[in-house]
Structure formats: C-alpha cells, structure tokens
Amino acid sequence: MLKHLKGDIQAVLDRDPAARNALEVILCYPSFKAVRRHRRAHWLWKHNMKLIARIISQRTRKKTGIEIHPGATIGEGFFIDHGMGVVIGETAEIGNNVTIYQDVTLGGTGKDVGKRHPTIGDNVVIGAGAKVLGPFTVGAGAKIGASAVVLKEVPPFSTVVGNPGRIVRQNNQKVVIDLDQVHLPDPVKARILSLTARVDELEKCLGCSGCDKCDSCAMQGECGRSAKEELKNEDL
Ligand SMILES: CC(C)(COP(=O)(O)OP(=O)(O)OC[C@H]1O[C@@H](n2cnc3c(N)ncnc32)[C@H](O)[C@@H]1OP(=O)(O)O)[C@@H](O)C(=O)NCCC(=O)NCCS
Asked: What top-level class would CATH report for the domain 2-184?
C-alpha cells in the first residue's frame, strides 16, 4: 500500500492543474482518499476478509461519493477527477495512469456472469458521465468522450463518443462515417442479377458434351451439349 502512495499523490499533481502540493492532495482530494481506501479494501478482499472489505468500500462511498468494489483491480497512477457518482464493478481491471471523471460507471450489462465488467488499458481517459458496460477491453491510450455509452471493445489509441459509442478517431486519424442515405446498396436487385447470370450460364451448358466451360459444372458433360460448339455459334 505504501508502495503506491507516492504514485497516487503524483497522479493528482500531474493531471489536475488546480492541485498545488502533496498536502492539498492528501487533505482535499476525494479521489486520493477513495483510491487509498480501495487499496486497503482490495488487500482484505484478496485475503478472504470480504465483509470488512465491503464495509470499507461502502464507507468510502458515503464519504467521497466514489464506489469502488473491493474486488476491482487498479494499477498505478489512477486518478478520478471530482469523483462524485463514480461506480467501479467487482471484476473491473484498470491499468496504469488511467484518468476518469465524475459520474463514470465501469459496470456490467446484467447479462454476464463471472467477469462482467470492463478491462481498461494503460493511459485511458474516460470523460464525465461515460458508461462503459460489459466484460470487454478498452485498449491502451483510448479516450472515451463525456457521456458516451460504450458497449463494445475499443481498439487502442482510438476516441469513442456518443450513445451508443462510436469510434471517431483511430491512431489520431479522423474516422470518416459514410452518411450517404441516397446511394444505398440494393441487396434484392444484386441477388436477382446474380441469379439471372447463373440461369444464362446454365442455359449455355444444357446439352454440353464436356469442354473447358464444363469443368466446374455439376453435370460434367452428362447433358450431351458442347459449350464450345455453342460459343462458336454465338461468335457467328
Ligand atoms: C472525446 C474527447 C476526449 C476528445 O477526444 P479527441 O480525440 O481529441 O476528439 P476530437 O475533439 O477531435 O473530437 C472528435 C469528434 O467527436 C466529437 N466529440 C468530442 N467529444 C464528444 C462528446 N463527449 N460527445 C459527443 N461528441 C463528441 C467532436 O465534436 C468531433 O466531431 P467532428 O469530427 O464531427 O468535429 C473529449 O471531447 C471529451 O469528451 N473529454 C472528456 C472531458 C471531460 O469529461 N471533462 C470533464 C471535466 S469536469
């Protein structure tokens, strides 16, 4: 727990321009309090003192407005800015140097058992009010926009916004979303054209007695028609 102390203070100093010194972080930051208490609760959880762990977690929620289940795994340099309304589920795993803002949920959808909360990669930023729901991975360096609702895996170094969350940037490149509502593909027309072409081909094969064109034909020359002759006639 002491091993993480310096990192937990430094995370706040590095990422909140309003933080002036370590003492201010220790006394005034709910994130610092919640993460420190979580590390204690997590230790107890892992050493099979689950009830005490849950009590610590619930008291932390009362004091800071941040609810972290003691089973959640949190890496170095985790920072929750403002904090109020944050919920982190039991099987959530958070990498190093992750930043999240107030009102973020790292939760489940209610459909999964066992691992049911997300895995957050290193250096991820999750904006205020975002909901990340399900047992998938948010890749390292990804950004989740404020108020986004993310239900699917997020590739590393991409930005996801909106509800449902969609990728708008990947590896710093803008993702172009095709909004052309007029020139949409027509699957029925495409199928009819393909069937017409097939019927034309089969008609040519009728009566064929075996040739290059017949190699892939299921009748294998049994129809008695020569496609080569037919093609010759067509040329004439
Ligand atoms: C998503 C975010 C991280 C920006 O990431 P980015 O990779 O720099 O992306 P951009 O700013 O280039 O935005 C890309 C597109 O997404 C849109 N966008 C950005 N944030 C969005 C959001 N939260 N919701 C919906 N759309 C959003 C932009 O308008 C832009 O759209 P455009 O391409 O049509 O112009 C940032 O907008 C954000 O939401 N940060 C969270 C900050 C926060 O929670 N602050 C709380 C302080 S108390």
From this structure: mainly beta
